[in-house]
Amino acid sequence: MRRYSKQREAVLKALRKSTTHPSAEEIYFEVKKEIPNISLGTVYRNLSLLKNEDEIMGFFPFSDSEHFDKSSEPHQHFCCEKCGKIFDVNVNTDLTDKSVEEILDCKIKSSKILFYGLCSECK
Ligand SMILES: [Zn+2]
Ligand SMILES: [Zn+2]
Question: How many beta carbons lie within 10 A of that of residue 70, not counting itself?
Answer without folding.
Answer: 21
